[in-house]
Design brief:
The complex is a heterotetramer, with two copies of chain A (101 residues) and two copies of chain B (148 residues).
Chain A (H helix, E strand, L loop, with lengths): L1 E7 L2 E10 L1 H18 L3 E12 L2 H15 L3 E5 L3 H9 L7 E2 L1
Helix pairs in contact in A: 1-2
Chain B lengths: L4 E10 L4 H13 L6 H22 L6 E9 L3 E8 L7 H4 L15 H8 L2 E7 L3 E9 L8
Helix pairs in contact in B: 1-2, 2-4
Classes of the chains: A alpha/beta (101), B alpha+beta (148).
Bound molecules: adenosine-5'-diphosphate (2 copies).
One adenosine-5'-diphosphate binds next to helix 2 and helix 4 of chain B.
Chain lengths: 101, 148, 148, 101
């Protein structure tokens, strides 16, 4: 699991690569929190294009990122969702709560 | 119903979260014998990951314990998986299987059983408080013509 | 020498040749925790494949038998593997370990033990005729700095 | 394990993809034998470029192909050897008996 980010005009883009499971999720949540606190974005793009695997631990990561952005009065959009991760997010009906592109 | 088993494996490991990747990877290496599509393999890995994570997080919340996975290939291209722990157990299995139900913290979504159920053809959960839990899943792999 | 084990797994399977791919794949999924290079991982998969093939071909030449692999992570990034069978056993281990020595047919090269020896840091073979064989191998994975 | 071949002016090119282990070797040897008998090549290129894994079973496959070509008074050249397979062939000192390119 690797996380990279870039920021431009208070838009934060977070890119994830590797396998997102429970083992990876806790550190990842902390990293995303810190990254948002430092950059205070008004919009965050969470780019899942590099994920080779994601289980329901990813749902918790997305929901937490969404809540953090709401606390900053900003928005979260999840982009480039690979097929396997998208099946997990769809089964959870996450599209009702979060912008999945 | 009696079902003939043509091949089986057993995996035993400790409830280190680092072993989640091992468990789903090892099962995928075994399931490869059934010539699954990438999507079928992804479904199986996801279901294994959910069941193993539950054993690590919920069965053994404050200690390391043993987890055993058995995988069998049954007739008609069916893969049967059981994930077993000797941990805390589940008081009310029916309630635990509801979508969004979770005794975990903010890190859990309560969608584990729901995902296992919709990614596999069949899910059975047997559990006894203080004794442990056994989750059994089946998935039929669509037979494909060999390309060559 | 006592060595602390930080994590372990056990794999049990039948001596179907189709399980060769499972065995090396599963061990590779476990070894991934040590963050090996592709070359180190290739060496480990090759050594496992040789030991497991020997159990399938030589230990159980005319029946299916049980094979058990134990993999442990020891201190200082060392992976220890043991591959065990309860098959025919080896009468003269020293002779069997010579390059090119083989009791197999044209399909075997007699290079199995030589490859295990040169791809791993250490190889031990314990065997008893009629009782079975245990091959134990160690390989230290070069520690790497995390990239991130 | 998959095998493909093409033939041009009695030069046979055999391309292997996938994992070459003992499980795959027996069928593969038979396929290579048949292919050589049908095409009676004077030269065979054995292209290993698509192999994702090979153990010592591959040594036996190469040696057998070499002997078959000798029986046809032809030659065998092994080409495009991936790194892992090449480590196996080198450990066996196969370069002394077979043309490895
Ligand atoms: N192996 C287990 N041992 C003990 N309790 C479990 C086990 N698996 C599941 N549970 C219980 O069932 C609940 C629902 O599980 P699940 O649907 O996977 O969601 P989550 O793991 O996200 O909480 C868990 O919160 C836990 O209380
Ligand atoms: N697990 C085993 N059980 C019985 N005999 C074995 C076992 N492993 C190796 N041997 C014996 O040792 C010989 C040499 O093994 P090896 O160097 O791997 O070459 P190969 O497998 O190509 O014959 C084998 O031919 C066989 O006689």
């Amino acid at each position: 699991m690797e996380m990279k980010y870039k920021t431009e005009n208070r838009q934060l883009t977070i890119t994830l690569t590797g396998e997102l499971d429970h083992h990876a999720a806790k550190d990842l949540m902390d990293s995303i929190d810190r990254c948002m606190e430092q950059n205070l974005p008004t919009k965050t793009l969470l780019d899942l294009g590099g994920l080779t695997f994601m289980d329901s631990s990813g749902i918790a990561v997305v929901l937490r990122a969404k809540r953090r952005m709401e606390a900053l009065s900003g928005t979260l959009v999840v982009v480039n969702i690979p097929r396997q991760a998208s099946r997990v997010l769809e089964t959870a009906g996450l599209g009702r709560y979060v912008d999945l592109v | 119903m009696k079902t003939k088993c043509t091949n089986y494996i057993t995996l035993e490991f400790l409830s280190h979260s680092a072993n989640e990747g091992f468990a789903r990877g090892a099962v995928a290496c075994f399931a490869a014998q059934l010539d699954p599509t990438l999507e079928e393999l992804g479904d199986i890995k996801t279901a294994v990951s959910e069941a193993v994570t539950n054993a690590i997080v919920h069965a053994y919340p404050d200690r390391l314990g043993k987890i055993v996975i058995k995988a069998r290939i049954l007739e008609e291209n069916v893969l049967e998986l059981s994930v077993r722990d000797w941990g805390r157990g589940i008081a009310d299995v029916e309630k635990a299987r509801q979508p969004l139900f979770s005794t975990g913290g903010e890190e859990r979504s309560g969608m584990g059983f729901t995902i296992m159920e919709s990614f596999m053809d069949r899910l059975t959960v047997r559990s006894q408080e203080g004794k442990g839990t056994r989750v059994t899943m089946r998935r039929r792999i669509q037979p494909r013509r060999a390309v060559q």
